[in-house]
Amino acid sequence: MRALLPLLLGWSLQAQTVPLTAVSAASYAPEAPLAPEMIAAAFTTAITTPLAAASSTPLPTTLSGHSVVLRDSAGVERVAGLFAIAPGQVNFLTPAGLAPGSVTVTLRSGDRAVAAGTARVAAVSPGTFSANANGRGAPAGLAQMVGGGSSSVSELFQDSGRGLYLPRPIPAVEGAQQYLILFGTGIRGWRTAVTAAVGGQSVPVAAAVAQGTFVGLDQVNLGPLPASFTDRRGELAVVLTVDGVATNTTTIALAPPGMGQWSTRAQLVEPNSEMAVAQLDGKIYVVGGYPASRVTQATVQVYDPVADRWERTTPLPAPINHTTAVSANGKLYMLGGQTDSGGGGNFSDRVFEYDPATREWRERARMPTARGGGVAVVLDSRIYVAGSRPPRGADFAVYIPEADQWRTLPDLPTQRNHLTGGALGGRIYIVGGRFEGGANSPQSDVVEIFDPVTNAWSRGAPMPRPRGGINAVEAYGCLHVFGGEGNSERPDGVYPDHDVYNPITNTWMRLGQLPIAVHGVTGAAFLNGLIYLPGGGTMIGGSSGSLHHQVYRPGMVCR
To answer: pLDDT confidence of 11, banded at 50, 70, 90?
Structure first.
């Protein structure tokens, strides 16, 4: 418990520009009221003193010569106990007995008022502490497993090593019941009911009380989680409701895999490779491609992570392979591709837009040039398309969906196809690929970076080794690059590589291999804390489209 204290205090050094703003130190919700005996945080530029913290209870009412005074709607002034003070911020305990209604919060330096602001007081103002001290992400709480021949307690958060805590997957033990222990503030004054929902499903609340060890801290015990709880999403939202008032949303991880590990989900309805993958509105789309027969398909398969199930939706207007797909402004876009399985032509410049509300496709403005085997990347709701099989391997253009217009951009410096890419930090990264049309073509390790502000290209650190037929996805600011074909070191000719690029340090890291090496997948999805990698060919060439559906839980953060 003592190790959790810095997280529970919600310490953050983000100064505010207003004279003084007082909020819950758990939720940080700007419009939420204060409640009696809750842990609060006040932000003001008036504080410039170094960090100082209380070392015992009762809490001191003065730190570094500063105090916090609250004057409630009854005109009564009370001095708050102080947890800590630092430049721009003071954390304090709201006094008991505050009258409901408006309250003035005043920061004093000695006898002089240096900052003031107003807030509301209510009987409850529930907030759940998060490990990231911002009211979001993994809760600063515990998971308890009881039964199955053992009992264990583990934290619900895990340090990424980059200053960001991620949800720690809760291990499942056969025959054991799972409980959650959450810590919050502004809850103890409840009178009617405290309820909880995990992943949208009701979960019993066993207790909602003052924690007892730390002043102002409340504890809510949830569980046992229902035995029927089969939600396979990588992360689930947790929301408490106290006397009709909802807390901030935190996130837990129930289903495997563990951090930095692989697992599987429901297989595709139809085997596929040389297709495109995109995510939209919490679902994953697999567009076009072909199975082992190499007969080009118009099929569109849709995965629902909640149900762990695939279904077909409205087919493409025309069969296509080696296409790209992305989402922007609530719509799904399919761009270019090939109409047959050969490597030398029959490229398409057609663009189709899918509306998930109507499940209908409509054609949009065509690309400036026909291409297949390229990559599409979305940045600021604009769609950038790079590369192609020869002779259009240097083509680079941007589509503006709201205007239904294309604009040609400076050529990709290194022409290539079967490449991949992503948007990181406001720039477009184009990675790897191959130079010729066939599977055994010479391959590239080149990373080229386009800056939309300067309209110019630059170079990044090359991949650990050249690869084509690859795909990638951004997760927590990192670019994960998977698979590929043309690997002479393996009889199947496929790369099992999983490399991660950090744009902050311009470096690559090699991670463990894919459980099933694949190629022929353009794009992947990062959703609910998991990277989804469906389908793909398992042998060099186009005659091995699969049903596989691999998922990975990233633990690396690039920030």
So the answer is: very low
